[in-house]
Structure formats: structure tokens, C-alpha cells
Amino acid sequence: MADPAIERAILRRVLSLPRPILRLIAGGGAVYAGGRTLDPRFQFLAQQAVTAPPLVGQTPAEARLRVERVLKMIAAAPEPGVAAEDLTLETAGGPIAARAYRPADQDPQAPLLVYAHQGGGVLCDLTVAHVFCTILAKTLRAPVLSVDYRLAPEHRFPAGLQDMLDAFRWAREHAPRFGAPTGAAAVGGDCIGATFAAVLCQELKRQGEPQPAFQLLIYPLTDVASETPSMATYADAYPLSRRLLEWFLGHYLPPDGDPADSRLSPIKAEELSGLAPAIIATAGYDPLLHQGEAYARRLRAAGTPVLYRCYDGLAHGFTAFTGVVTAADAACREIAGLTRGLIRP
């Protein structure tokens, strides 16, 4: 097996080639679908992935090892000036591993952001969100708490969601430990982590608890029960295809799970008023594109303040690609800047 460091160096050298050359070696022309043109770096990565065994043919354990190796190749270096600390949260539901990030120039008025990583509820751990959490902490000038929630199929729905609820409540109570004001906590996530964040806001409302300071939802899965046009248009997208999404859900959902349950499909909630202000970001080349877009419309119609952005040329999972896709790094920094605007308008 090749040395990951050598593979990473080669990949980054190739991806630094001019865009026309990248397109040439990745198939010869631009990839265009649904009115969007895929970023040439994502196009090259997608073309390379075709030669690898599909994740849908692997067990979750095998897929985790494969993704771990890929992440080492595509991640950027963490932001300087941000300290990271691994810790265990002693919550009402039991201990939960987490990682706290604090910037050197922290704003004492900024809330603690509780973050849930991507991975379809089956893959990944704190590593996948490590670099992005340092970007968030530095740009927001706020502490970030990344939560290592339980994964399926070992722990199916609603285990991961419950971990996030328990972690958020712990964080809200212990915010001063991280230099944030008492009781001041926000929530965010990407992919299913964004689903957790959206559902968390709804659950707190149902329980009569205060809303988070804001909700940051990046390419969220908001509707397990329905079809959307992007599910067909980008069915074969990289790195999330329709088949892979079905693989995730097959492991994540319990046998008696109801896809229309608003804890699985937050867009199915009848009432969406009174929720935390939201920033919702989607990727253009993503089967979940229209789910995030539709949830933004529903929130806005219910009177919830929403700032929505679609990064047309990017693909699902782009927060993990900051080391090899220049546009992904730029998008992550813009998202962090927009979120900072909610803290200090």
C-alpha cells in the first residue's frame, strides 16, 4: 500500500494544474448538469473514484477505514491560532467524546457552537470536521464543541440524535467553561450533522426550552420520505450518490423507522415558526441540493430568519475537501464569515 503522505503530495500537485488541463485529464470537457458546472478539481476526484471499489459494496467497518485514508489525503492543515482539546462530556445520557476549539482572540460575547460532523450517521468521527471547526472557531472568534456522536449500524436512529441533544444541553450549561456567556450556545453541522442541528431546534421548541443562538446547516438531509429533482439530476454525483445515500439510510434507519418522522425528516414538521435564525448552505452537485433549499423556504415562510447560499460548482461534503479544492476552502471561509455576522452584525 502506498505511503499516504506521498499520495497526498502527488494529488495536490496534480490538482494545482490549470483548470483546462485538469478537465482534459478528467474526461476532456466540463461536467454540466442542472444548469451547473462542476468544479474541475471535484471533476478530477470523481473521475479517479470510478476506479475504486464502491462504498456500497463494503461493510461499514471497511468503509470507515477507506474514508479515513481519503480524509488524510484531502484535508488542509488546521488554522493557526486555535487550540484544540479532547474531552468527555458527562451528560444525562452518558459520557460522550468531544473536541473543543478555542481561538486565541476569542470574543467573550460569542456563543459556544456545538457542531455535528458529516458521514451519513454511519461513517467518520471528529477528524472529518477538524479543519473546518478550526476555521469556524477562528473566524467566529468563538469556541466550537465538535461532538463524537454514536454511529449506525451499531447504534441506529435515534442514538446519534440523542447524543447531540444531550451534548447541546451539557454545552449550554457549561458554556462559561469555554469562555462563552452563561447559557449561550448555538448549533451546527453538515450532512446528517445538519439534520441533527435542525431537529435539535425543533425538539427544544417542543420541550419549551430556549432556542440556540443560531443554527448552521450545511447540505442538510431534511426529507427522507420524499423525492426531489436533485435526487435524479445528481443521482451519480461524487462523493454522495443516490445509491450511497440509500446505503447510509439502510444502516441508519431502524427496521420500524418512519421516514416521515420529523426527527428523520425535519421538513415534515407541521410548524416551523419560532426557531433559531438559520444559515443554510448547499452544494450544487448534490442529491440533497433541493432538500436544503426547500427547508430554507419553509423556515422563511414560517418567519424564521434565514440566510441561504448555494455553492453551485461544489459537491456534497465540501467542508472536508479544503486541502485539495480551492473553491471548497473559499466556501468554508465565506460560510464562517456569514455566521460571524449573526454574532456581530
Fold and architecture overview:
It is built from eleven helices and ten strands. Helix 5 (130-140) packs across helix 11 (326-343). The protein is globular, with a radius of gyration of 19 Å. It folds into two domains: 4-72, no CATH class; 79-343, Rossmann fold (3-Layer(aba) Sandwich). By secondary structure, the chain is α/β, with parallel strands linked by helices. It is 38% helix and 18% strand. An eight-stranded mixed sheet has the order 3-4-6-5-7-8-9-10, sandwiched between helices.
Key features of this structure:
345 residues, alpha/beta, 2 domains, two-stranded antiparallel ribbon
The structural class is alpha/beta
User: What is the H/E string?
Assistant: HHEEHHEEEHEHEHEHHEHEH
List the total number of helices: 11
User: Based on CA inertia axes, which overall geometry fits?
Assistant: globular
The CATH architecture of the largest domain comes to 3-Layer(aba) Sandwich
Give the name of the CATH superfamily of the largest domain.
Alpha/Beta hydrolase fold, catalytic domain
Radius of gyration: 19 Å
Strand residue content: 15-25%
Strand line-up of the largest beta sheet: 3-4-6-5-7-8-9-10
Highest CATH level, the class of the largest domain:
Alpha Beta
What's the total number of strands?
A: 10
Q: How far from one another are the termini? A: 50 Å
Nearest-integer average pLDDT: 96
Fraction of residues in helix? 25-40%
Within the CATH hierarchy, at the fold level, what is the topology of the largest domain?
Answer: Rossmann fold
Largest sheet: 8 strands, mixed
